[in-house]
Amino acid sequence: MLYPIENRVREVKNLSGIWNFKIDKNNSGISERWYEAPLKDAVLMAVPSSYNDLVTDASEREHVGYVWYETSFIIPAGWEGRRIVIRFGSAAHHAVCWINGQEILRHKGGFLPFEAEITEIVEASEEKEFRLTVALSNVLDWTCLPSGEVVTKEGKGYPEGYHYQDTFFDFYNYSGIHRPVKLYTTPKRYIEDIVITTSLNQEMTRAEVVCRITGTDKIKKIQILDENGLAAAESTDTAETVTLTVENPKLWNPGKAYLYRLRVEGEEDSYTETFGIRSVKVTDKEFLINGKPFYFKGFGKHEDSEIHGRGMDLALNVKDFNLLKWMGANSFRTSHYPYSEELLMMADREGFVIIDEAPAVGMCFWQEKKVFDGTRVNEKTLEHHLDTLKDMYSRDKNHPCVVMWSVANEADTSEDGAVPYFKKVIDTMRSLDNTRPVTMVHTMWPSADKVSQWLDVICLNRYFGWYSDHGHTEVIKEQVTGEMKEWYEKYHRPMIMTEYGADTIPGLHKMPAVAFSEEFQCEFLKEYHKAFDELDFMVGEQVWAFADFQTKQGLNRIDGNKKGVFTRNRQPKMAAWLLRERWTREKG
Ligand code: BDP
């Protein structure tokens, strides 16, 4: 799926702004056909944003089910004769959309874009002014990613109809239209998709750029432009797949991005896609980018901030990249769902290395309950998981920053039922893309894990000294070393510690250090680093987490997860300096 762009033949209209909004308290709006007329008693709501932290009533914040959004738009006279598409960057989690009461699309999944062509509706109307209504549900069950359960309780002590949304992941189930909603035009014959794959010769002096262009337009010319706008290669081949050669290519390198543009010109349409030339290869001990060993230094993050929730926030993204660069970080994982396209575009330009993760999180109960025995994860979950991988690939395939796919976070891979499930998931990811390695992020023990033989890199989350032996930093080094070696001996794959961290209250100082103090966070991280530095198969360390973030309420979550190296408002804790010192001095 292509990102909406403007050029001579394409226009974009951003519908972001203040929309009408209504909580559907009884979830009766669809049966009562609220979409047929303007919403009654609506309040104002910002798009994009999560609505949860913008309302003042707890029952609205925690509402389970539908909320309604509404706006109106006009179609400019100049759009006559154009193909018109409406596109949502993302909306959590299930959307139904109507234009003037006519249903135009339904979509499941809260973290990836979806769109519908609306040319016919526009052409059939004299008015050229339209009411857009969106019903959006935040309900998560076992057919969704991430999965959840709506819990109902009845009897003494519970009001009638009592229920709440339970989730098995450690971030708040922010809901709303989280990314921009746009209208865009194309000519009637148009370019639907462009897939760019690059490969380099051994000496890296020549790149083959394979471009597969689909759509209804006939392609006249494709050109690769360098950063000065000069043509590095061009072709007038009209086949669907065309291979271009770039001599002496400038490579996209971590921290030193170089971006080419592929300009595709059809008889009617044209589109320019940004891409980079780089290679990614994994050996048994190394992660190679452009043939050089790369060591991941960075974080697991969240799209999360005060007021906005998970709503896209460009200022926040700029701040985060500046902080990441200040620290000497070179990478992050989009834990635990694909982040916005706008963020990936920045990572392309900043030379940041991204592990792109599917929203499959919370498929593990640490032996308390089974997940893959048919009672929870089911055929529909798998179907949705595979669809999500396809959509994630389709959206992110041309980003040079994305160097590896993560198909899930912390699933119970010790269960027999997880074996066929993840075989299918990993095979599907590979069949979509054979140019990037595939991983999944583990919480399992090496002796129990049954699926990692199909992965290229082993990624592990560990909390020695925190969730086990709480407060005892003296056990960390040996436990990390011991376990990492076990994984390596079992699978002979390079390893990344994708999460390690300790909740830390900013401003709490203790000497000697005790858990939750800033000193403890520093000592805790240092112990992990001692272990990493002795293991030659380690290819990265990503601290959990970049910044504090909101979670559901829980006894061990006082206003969220505090494992951030920055506060939720992006102010540094002491550990920021420790990491900066380490990452600006050491390794790749
Ligand atoms: C890991 C999860 C992450 C949590 C973290 C924690 O992957 O989402 O936030 O633990 O407990 O298990 O802080």
From TrEMBL:
<feature type="domain" description="Glycosyl hydrolases family 2 sugar binding">
    <location>
        <begin position="13"/>
        <end position="187"/>
    </location>
</feature>
<keyword id="KW-0378">Hydrolase</keyword>
<dbReference type="InterPro" id="IPR036156">
    <property type="entry name" value="Beta-gal/glucu_dom_sf"/>
</dbReference>
<dbReference type="InterPro" id="IPR013783">
    <property type="entry name" value="Ig-like_fold"/>
</dbReference>
<protein>
    <recommendedName>
        <fullName>Beta-glucuronidase</fullName>
        <ecNumber>3.2.1.31</ecNumber>
    </recommendedName>
</protein>
<feature type="domain" description="Glycoside hydrolase family 2 catalytic">
    <location>
        <begin position="280"/>
        <end position="585"/>
    </location>
</feature>
<dbReference type="InterPro" id="IPR006101">
    <property type="entry name" value="Glyco_hydro_2"/>
</dbReference>
<comment type="similarity">
    <text>Belongs to the glycosyl hydrolase 2 family.</text>
</comment>
<dbReference type="GO" id="GO:0005615">
    <property type="term" value="C:extracellular space"/>
</dbReference>
<dbReference type="InterPro" id="IPR006104">
    <property type="entry name" value="Glyco_hydro_2_N"/>
</dbReference>
<dbReference type="Pfam" id="PF02836">
    <property type="entry name" value="Glyco_hydro_2_C"/>
</dbReference>
<feature type="domain" description="Glycoside hydrolase family 2 immunoglobulin-like beta-sandwich">
    <location>
        <begin position="190"/>
        <end position="278"/>
    </location>
</feature>
<dbReference type="InterPro" id="IPR017853">
    <property type="entry name" value="GH"/>
</dbReference>
<dbReference type="Pfam" id="PF00703">
    <property type="entry name" value="Glyco_hydro_2"/>
</dbReference>
<keyword id="KW-0326">Glycosidase</keyword>
<dbReference type="GO" id="GO:0005975">
    <property type="term" value="P:carbohydrate metabolic process"/>
</dbReference>
<dbReference type="InterPro" id="IPR006103">
    <property type="entry name" value="Glyco_hydro_2_cat"/>
</dbReference>
<dbReference type="Pfam" id="PF02837">
    <property type="entry name" value="Glyco_hydro_2_N"/>
</dbReference>
<dbReference type="InterPro" id="IPR008979">
    <property type="entry name" value="Galactose-bd-like_sf"/>
</dbReference>
<dbReference type="GO" id="GO:0019391">
    <property type="term" value="P:glucuronoside catabolic process"/>
</dbReference>
<dbReference type="InterPro" id="IPR023232">
    <property type="entry name" value="Glyco_hydro_2_AS"/>
</dbReference>
<dbReference type="GO" id="GO:0030246">
    <property type="term" value="F:carbohydrate binding"/>
</dbReference>
<dbReference type="GO" id="GO:0004566">
    <property type="term" value="F:beta-glucuronidase activity"/>
</dbReference>
<dbReference type="InterPro" id="IPR023230">
    <property type="entry name" value="Glyco_hydro_2_CS"/>
</dbReference>
<dbReference type="InterPro" id="IPR006102">
    <property type="entry name" value="Ig-like_GH2"/>
</dbReference>
